[in-house]
Amino acid sequence: MNSNTNILWADDEIDILKPQILFLESKNYKVTPVTNGFDALEKVKMEHFDVIFLDEQMPGMSGLETLGAIKEIRPHVPIVLITKSEEENLMDEAIGSKISDYLIKPVNPRQIILTLKRLLDNSRLVTEKSTMDYQKTFNKLAMQIMNADSIESWMEVYQKLVYWELELQNNDDQNIADILIMQKQEANNEFSKFIKKNYTEILDESYSESGPMMSHNLFKRLILPNINDDKSVFFILIDNLRLDQWKLIARYLRDHIKLKEEGLFTSILPTTTQYSRNAIFSGYMPSDIAKHFPDKWINEDEEGSKNKFEEDLLREFLNRSLSKPIKWSYHKVFNFDFSKHVNSKLHQLLNNKLNVIVYNFVDMLSHARTEVDIIKELANDEAAYRKVTESWFEHSPLYDLIKNLKDKKAKIIFATDHGTIRVQSPIKVVGDRSTTSNLRYKHGRSLQFNPKEVLDTSNPETFKLPSPNINSKYIFARSNDYMIYPNNYNHYVSYYKDTFQHGGISLEEMIIPFAIYNC
Questions:
Q1: What global pTM score does this model have?
Q2: pLDDT surpassing 80 at residue 94
Q3: Would you identify the CATH topology of the domain 6-120?
């Protein structure tokens, strides 16, 4: 708030408002008074104003008419309607005309100041408050990171980190941004140590009813209990979706469907579609898929899509898990046109007890950011990456589907298969031709690496992973590391730095969201 703040005030009784205008001028606001809508319109054409006060009942051109005319010229200027009436239809019309606020006469100076602060200083005040709040909680969060000793406590830590990441994303204070980045890095370092020490135990616990919800028991724990005679269940799996991205998407759902439950679960390792999503649809860990359905598990060194049998695996799971058959459908969406096609079948889908729809856009975006220059520009950091995801959802047929499901006899369950992390720190590994190309995990026979830099297992069965040959070994990158071969090392370090990758151990990749909504 300073002397540069320029206010236009239009009221046919402007002389009566002289005390309010003098009060504003004493606070270093510049006020330009006019007595009608026509003069207000001329002033707006000639001069810039930071905020405009309009009386609702002016002769000649009413406040609402003036509002509409001003919006055509200056669509973004905040406009406050001042009225004697609180009639509902008037308020509806005013709000529909995109007023920024309204005040009821007689207007007192304190109301005016509060309105100006909210309209002109809101962003700065919110930023300052968020910064102070984060500074106050920094030490407490640091202690939580150091003391986290269960997957549940790590979920709580990650939720708080994502909360502050979203709260501070528009903050211009680079020092605060850097502190949060460092704290998140420290959390990932400690989380990686936790997973290295406890992953096999977490897997073992997941087979008990009270154990953690993970990829292979997600359907049993989350989907099956919601299948009943009353409603059709739509299970929407958005591939490669992080918690921070989900938080932005969830904002769009509030006006259309009702949140029943939301939470987090844990992706298995490797945090890739081949492993985690096949586990979701089969209800088995990868080694068990390879054992029970060898024709439906495609090994890393074999040709073909590694997830082409998802529908078959789901059919097998439903057949062995349900006491009686149900009508269900499965669709995998790769493009806009097919997504529209799925929407066109909504009436038919509502007759099914279960509809599974997989959306691959976010995963495609993640990979495209590495390979396509224009995507690198659009998603050049974490906030931009979230924004591109948000923009996709807002204009997607998926959002249309959700709006069309409003008030239908249906439930919608959202989940993902894994997340992704922006990689920063290269580590050197050596492999042979059969070694996988993924930067966050490697599977092969002749792997050379520094064991202090990775989580490794020479006995894949302990991680419930397939072992195509006797010398099979898996290694997993931790935190924001990425694995680079020695050949052309510097070139590939530069090429892949700051890209979004998945397959390894990090909060972003392993701690992932789910939500249940009633329509």
A1: 0.84
A2: no
A3: Rossmann fold (3.40.50)
